[in-house]
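[step 3/7] inverse_fold.run input=structure_tokens len=86
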């Protein structure tokens, strides 16, 4: 055998040896114990904003009533979605 063939054979055999020992070490590791505890939830220390007005259902979002043409176009699109889907 030539020197290149011998070197190739040695490198392949040593690689196979290291692969099997690595796999053996990976399988011998044990799983950690499952006795870990969860941290406790922090206490709530924030207070509602005392200066804020109470929530209201009549408060508007800032949108004004649209032009009748825009309302008509929106209604047509809603009807189209109801009939055909998106």
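[step 3/7] decode complete -> sequence:
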């Amino acid at each position: 055998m030539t020197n290149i063939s011998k070197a190739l054979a040695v490198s392949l055999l040593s690689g196979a040896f290291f692969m099997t020992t690595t796999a053996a070490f990976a399988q011998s590791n044990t799983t950690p114990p499952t006795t870990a505890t969860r941290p406790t939830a922090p206490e709530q220390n924030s207070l509602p904003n005392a200066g804020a007005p109470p929530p209201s259902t009549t408060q508007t979002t800032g949108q004004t009533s649209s032009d009748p043409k825009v309302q008509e176009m929106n209604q047509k699109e809603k009807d189209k979605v109801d009939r055909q889907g998106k």
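[step 4/7] annotate
Residues 1 and 7 are 10 Å apart (CA to CA).
The helical segments are 3-28, 68-84.
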